[in-house]
């Protein structure tokens, strides 16, 4: 969704929003829930139906996001990292914003791949390793790796506006989606309570910077995020109580565009 809006692909790629309540049979469609939709293409009640319609023998996990081809009536991809690259390359000729922006430029690919590798392992997936740990040792190991990685990113972002310099790349997009949820969910729900995101001046500024770029803020629904985690992971939060806070203003001014050279995102 972030790259879709960054590239101005809203009129090319429509989207449906599943219910934030993840239950035993997986993701469902329910337009009665604020911010959610029905499935206007297949009239499916469950995302599982679309997977099986695309591949009747499919027995893997039913995950989101899903990129669905309305011509072939099949799922094209269900891996977020690959969909990001598809939107950046295969769909770029249809972009109405930032067409000149390459989120995976050839001269930075080695650096981006290296960043993606440890950021995914220790931060994107690291918060889940903390939250879903089944032993104190597993939790402690994941916790320390997570905050070591956050300190490393904080140091990188003290020297440049984005992870690879003064232009946003896919590495920034992938990091942003996790950091956005950090204080909202992971700090309490997944016991990632070493420090809050807002305690890191550069990480906090980075998240506000990305959030306020173009139409990216339109992809964020804080209440849905909280509802999904707190009301779906009942083995962690048995009563499904959704907290009212924290109250975070991602639209609060930041100074990263003044601190570093400005880039071309609109």
Keywords for this structure?
266 residues, mainly alpha, two-stranded antiparallel ribbon, 10 helices, 3% strand, globular
Explain this structure.
The chain has 266 residues and is mainly alpha-helical. Helix content is 42%, strand content 3%. The chain is built from ten helices and two strands; from the N terminus they run H-H-E-E-H-H-H-H-H-H-H-H. The chain has helices at residues 2-6, 47-54, 80-88, 109-124, 126-131, 136-156, 170-189, 201-211, 222-232, 256-259; strands at 67-69, 74-77. Strands 1-2 form a two-stranded antiparallel ribbon. A hairpin with a 4-residue loop joins strand 1 and strand 2. Helix 4 (109-124) runs antiparallel to helix 6, helix 7 packs across helix 8 (201-211) and helix 7 (170-189) crosses helix 9 (222-232). The radius of gyration is 19 Å and the shape is globular. The chain starts with a helix and ends in a 7-residue tail after the last helix. The mean pLDDT is 96.
SSE map:
Layout: H1 2-6, H2 47-54, E1 67-69, E2 74-77, H3 80-88, H4 109-124, H5 126-131, H6 136-156, H7 170-189, H8 201-211, H9 222-232, H10 256-259
Antiparallel strand pairs: 1-2
Helix pairs in contact: 4-6, 4-7, 7-8, 7-9
Calculate the mean pLDDT score and round it. Answer: 96
Q: How are strands sequenced across the largest beta sheet?
A: 1-2
As residue ranges, the low-confidence spans are none
Radius of gyration: 19 Å
Please tell me what the overall shape is: globular
């Amino acid at each position: 969704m972030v790259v879709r809006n960054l590239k101005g692909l809203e009129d090319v790629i429509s989207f449906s929003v599943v219910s934030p309540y993840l239950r035993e049979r997986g993701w469902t469609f329910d337009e009665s829930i604020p911010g959610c939709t029905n499935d206007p293409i297949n009239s499916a009640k469950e995302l599982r139906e679309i997977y099986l319609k695309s591949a009747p023998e499919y027995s893997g996990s039913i995950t989101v996001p899903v990129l669905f081809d309305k011509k072939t009536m099949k799922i094209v991809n269900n891996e977020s990292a690959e969909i990001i690259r598809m939107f950046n390359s295969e769909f770029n000729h249809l972009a109405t914003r930032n067409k000149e922006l390459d989120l995976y430029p050839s001269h930075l690919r080695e650096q981006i791949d290296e960043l993606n590798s440890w950021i995914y392992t220790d931060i994107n997936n690291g918060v889940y390793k903390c939250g879903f740990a089944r032993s104190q040792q597993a939790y402690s190991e994941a916790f320390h790796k997570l905050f070591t990685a956050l300190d490393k990113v904080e140091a990188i972002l003290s020297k440049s506006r984005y992870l690879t310099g003064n232009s946003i790349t896919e590495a920034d997009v992938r990091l942003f989606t996790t950091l956005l949820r950090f204080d909202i969910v992971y700090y309490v729900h997944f016991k990632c309570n070493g420090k809050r995101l807002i305690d890191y001046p550069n990480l906090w500024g980075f998240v506000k910077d990305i959030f306020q770029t173009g139409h990216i803020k339109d992809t964020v629904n804080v209440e849905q995020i909280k509802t999904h985690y707190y009301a779906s992971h009942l083995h962690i939060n048995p009563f499904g109580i959704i907290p009212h806070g924290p109250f975070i203003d991602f639209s609060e001014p930041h100074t990263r565009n003044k601190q570093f050279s400005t880039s071309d995102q609109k």
